[in-house]
Design brief:
Blueprint (H helix, E strand, L loop, with lengths): L1 E4 L6 E4 H8 L6 H10 L6 H8 L3 H11 L13 H8 L1 H12 L1 H4 L13 H19 L7 H10 L3 H5 L13 H8 L3 H11 L4 H8 L11 H16 L20 H6 L7 H12 L10
Antiparallel strand pairs: 1-2
Helix pairs in contact: 2-3, 4-6, 5-6, 6-9, 8-9, 8-14, 8-16, 9-13, 12-13, 13-14
Bound molecules: fe (ii) ion (2 copies).
One fe (ii) ion (FE2) binds next to helix 8.
Length: 292
Amino acid sequence: MSVTTAPGNEWKTVRFEVLEKTESLPSLSIVVSEFLVLARRDFFTAKDFETVISKDQALVARLLKVANSGLYGRSRSITTIPEAVVMIGVDNLKKIVYAVSSEGLTRQVLENYNYHPDQGFWLHSMGVGHATKVLVEASSQCPLNGEEGFVAGLLHDVGKLVIDGFLPSGSPRAITREQEKEAVGLDHGELAEYILKQWNLPLSTATTVRYHHDYQGAGEFAGGAAALALAEGVCSTWDLGRNIPMDLSQEVPKEQFSELMDFLAIDPAKWDQVIWDIRQSLVGLDEVFGDD
Ligand SMILES: [Fe+2]
Ligand SMILES: [Fe+2]
């Protein structure tokens, strides 16, 4: 059986089983969409943070666990959200909230896509999230803020979680968007847009994600999609998520990305600094797998 759906502006016929599988994905905490709304405000207090996050107690418990992990090595343990706010800071805590909220999705193992079986998809998702945040903040032409960039990067390949089960099974390999369309009628960007809308994420995030392989189609959000495409390109240079442990030593030649850099108005003279910032944001990521 097939049903008709409208992931974007056009209608497509999608197999019923695909939508069923989409609905069975672990859902994203409502805290994520509420934080993205708050991030658009000029002023955000620790109290606002606490009010929103306390709606999801399972998330609070997990957040405190991660806050106490080796990554944030503290001399004494953190047992409440206000303490965590003081010791880690709201910005870092929000990043942990986004990462923790999406763990049920990003920690899955894909059968057909060529990510490393040991948390490669998680590493790729987190890496592109961090890189997108840096690029969004380095660009004067991007309609997203850093937080929106991080979430878009984190969830950009979520469509693959559904499509994976409908591909002809075989060994892990590079899958083209055409092959995805043959399998389910949509590519992973289109399907991700549908999923993100179901989770009530802002249109800016859903549209950015949809067009991460075709940024010019994203209309007013083309700057966000270009930042995401550039983040993906940089992370591909390092094979992030395909190799573990990660190796960030490979040079990232700016000539290869000049079109995207122009579009984002990122000064080529600042490229080395941008790459440095991305590397800094990724250091240690592959060491936090065991912290649950
Ligand atoms: Fe990707
Ligand atoms: Fe992708």
